[in-house]
Specification:
InterPro entries: cNMP-bd_dom (IPR000595), Cupin_2 (IPR013096), PKS_Associated_Protein (IPR052044), RmlC-like_jellyroll (IPR014710), RmlC_Cupin_sf (IPR011051). The protein has 1 helix and 7 strands; from the N terminus they run H-E-E-E-E-E-E-E. The chain is mainly beta. Strand 1 and strand 2 form a beta hairpin.
Length: about 120
């Protein structure tokens, strides 16, 4: 586990990601985990009742469909926060590299059962 006072090379961490929709925790700071992930195609509708989820797009473009709200388009260098409990479904037409920030132990598919549910892993 990386300590908060250590630098993390985000591009280097993302270069090690080999599977889509399989986040890898790279850092924990103040009780929040930062996860590197590559995404492409559709994810599943899900929510996270335990806390907000922040998406920071490093490369590419991410669309986040939101239940009963307009979809959000998040481009490289932009962030978007999905509020706690709100159902959402990320999508990327082309491969997109992102950082996700959420509380420790949060399952990537929330309470939804899916073959895209990832095990918690650290780089």
């Amino acid at each position: 586990m990386a300590r908060p006072d250590m630098s993390v090379n985000i591009a280097g961490k993302l270069a090690k990601v080999t599977e889509h929709w399989s986040p890898k925790t790279v850092l924990e700071v103040n009780g929040l985990e930062f996860k590197a992930v590559k995404v492409k195609g559709d994810f599943v509708w899900h929510n996270h009742p335990e806390g907000d989820e922040l998406f920071l797009v490093v490369r590419g473009e991410l669309t986040i469909d939101l239940k009963d709200r307009p979809s959000a388009v998040v481009r490289a260098g932009e962030m978007f926060v999905v509020p706690r409990g709100l159902y959402h479904k990320p999508y990327a037409a082309q491969e997109c590299e992102i950082l996700i920030m959420d509380p420790p132990g949060v399952v990537n598919t929330g309470e939804a059962s899916s073959d895209l549910t990832a095990d918690e892993e650290w780089f």
